[in-house]
Specification:
Layout: H1 16-20, E1 40-43, E2 46-47, E3 52-68, E4 71-88, H2 96-110, E5 114-119, E6 132-138, E7 154-161, E8 166-168
Antiparallel strand pairs: 1-2, 1-5, 3-4, 4-7, 5-6, 6-7, 6-8
Length: 170
């Protein structure tokens, strides 16, 4: 029984460690966060890493809603994969515009899709923590140039993959 004359412990006085850690907690994962400083970006046979400002390979999940007299139920639909990149534009031979334009022309004339490969660190070997992500994508129109006075002209692409990308670690 608690003595009414003894003040109760304030929450700040409690053993905070016992409240934060439970015997059922699993050990925290360890690793190094990926900081994008030297990503490798290849489209077709061109290494565009030095012109790449942003790059991502990401899924887009479309939900399918079924509406009945009992309400609406959502189900996972097809997943569409995107290759998204922002480049500092250049019209130099073999660089951004030449590569994107050639990919688009090949697709329009013969239906040839564009291969790509990216990895987090260009200066490190392919490994479990530096995988090559690759696939093929359908080229579409892109902005040829544009920007503000004194700023770098940039061009963005958001090209749809023909299948889910692959991840190689060797």
């Amino acid at each position: 029984m608690t003595d009414p004359k003894t003040p109760a412990k304030e929450p700040a006085e409690r053993d905070e460690v016992s409240e934060l850690v439970s015997a059922a907690d699993i050990v925290a994962a360890t690793g190094t966060p990926l900081v994008m400083v030297d990503a490798y970006v290849e489209i077709g046979a061109a290494n565009l890493s030095c012109f790449a400002i942003e790059v991502s390979v990401e899924p887009e999940l479309k939900m399918i809603d079924v509406e009945t007299f009992c309400g609406i139920t959502s189900f996972p639909g097809p997943t569409k994969w995107h290759f998204k990149a922002k480049f500092a534009q250049t019209f130099d031979t073999g660089a951004v515009d030449a590569t994107l334009g050639a990919a688009l022309a090949a697709y329009r004339s013969a239906g040839t899709v564009a291969p790509f490969r990216v990895r987090p660190h260009s200066g490190k070997a392919v490994a479990a923590n530096n995988p090559f992500i690759s696939g093929t994508m359908v080229p579409t129109d892109y902005a040829w140039f544009g920007g503000a006075a004194g700023a770098t002209s940039e061009t963005d692409i958001d090209w749809i993959l023909t299948a889910p990308p692959t991840k190689a670690t060797t």
